[in-house]
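Methods — Computational structure assignment.
A single polypeptide chain was analysed. Its primary sequence is given first, followed by the predicted tertiary structure written as structure tokens.
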Amino acid sequence: MRKKTIIVFLVSLLATLLIGVMITYPQWKGLIKTSSDPEEASLVTLDAVSDDALPEKTDDPDIVQVEIEAIPTPTPPPFEEYDINLMAVGDNLMHMGLVNSGRLAEGGYNFDFLYEDIAPFLDKADISIINQETIMAGNEKGFSGFPYFNSPVEVADAIEKAGFNVVLQSSNHTIDQGLDGLLNAYKVWEDHPGVIAVGIHDDPEKLRDIPVLDIRGVKFAILNYTYGPNLGAVPSNVRGYMNILCATKEGSKTGELDLTRLDPAVIDDIKKAKEMADIVIVCPHWGEEYAIEPTKYQVEFANQMAEAGADLIIGAHPHVPEPVTYITASSGHRCLCYYSLGNYISTGQNGQSMLEGMAWVVFHVTEDGVYIDENKTGVLPLVMEYLSGPLRFEGVYPLEDYTDELAGKHGIRSWGGVNLTVDKLKEWSSQIFGEWSISKDYILSQ
């Protein structure tokens, strides 16, 4: 009888211990090993145990010993620095000889060939900018060249297909076909999601919007303005639909422009963009046509933009290239300025208009920020070639690859008075670009 009582007692005790373990288990989510030697006790990992719930240390060898090892915080990998490449070309000036070059025998138009010669650079660039000098008001209106341009909408197809992702659309030809033409061009670009078109709007309420492009975690604000339309004033019905660089004359009720003063709204836009983006790029349509040196107003405007916080200025409109320089603001902030890249394509009659620049800017990204890498940045001199009889596009060549044989058949000779040679092109390039000139291999080997 006594033996039976002892067995019942032991069973009851075992059950009680089992229930206790089950009740306290949620507090101990680890594997516990008991030992009479405290140093042989295994480590236990606890997910969430309060200090009050932990047992006090004891020297009793019959008590389970528990050691808690903190999980170390993983060390983040070091920041991997990287580059972001920007390229920009000048005016996409669609004279009728270029329009006719894209006409297909079976009907319709295709302009892919206009950008094939610069494909290696487009492939290497993260940001690719082109200045769309002319407006695409709708093919149904018919096509026209200077002075009131209307270009085929297929130009936009080719620009997107080539790999450009930024188009500058604010120029002195933006309203060549009126407000309807501007609005049609806006819609054309809306139908090309791979491209951000800047400088025009479909609603005046958007005039002060800041376009921002996010490239691999770095934000680029891209602003585009023109000195004005070819009217000396901004008509009331188009105000707010295009970005204007110059201020309105004081007291003017007709929108007459003062070409010697920068619109204060431009400075406000740059400051606003500086708060939104890591890099602010300003693309002004400015200057004097066929002048290879910037005007004093270009210099003044560029300095004001740099003071406001612009990091990069890429100019257009003169139809010839102009110098590249750094501008240092009073704060010490530095802004790289390409005053003009010239024409990308045209059938112009000025010899220097056949020389052009392709801006190549490398932004280096570090853990602390982003800056322009001067050692990898510059301008690639290019030459645009067309033929005459009839006027047709031939190609765009790096100056280093251009030959006297090509120069000898250049269509510009048909206008008379222009003797284009490789030596002359190199002389102009050296005069304008100086030490900023870089080679194609210098770009492609980066």
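Note: DSSP finds ten helices and 19 strands in the chain.
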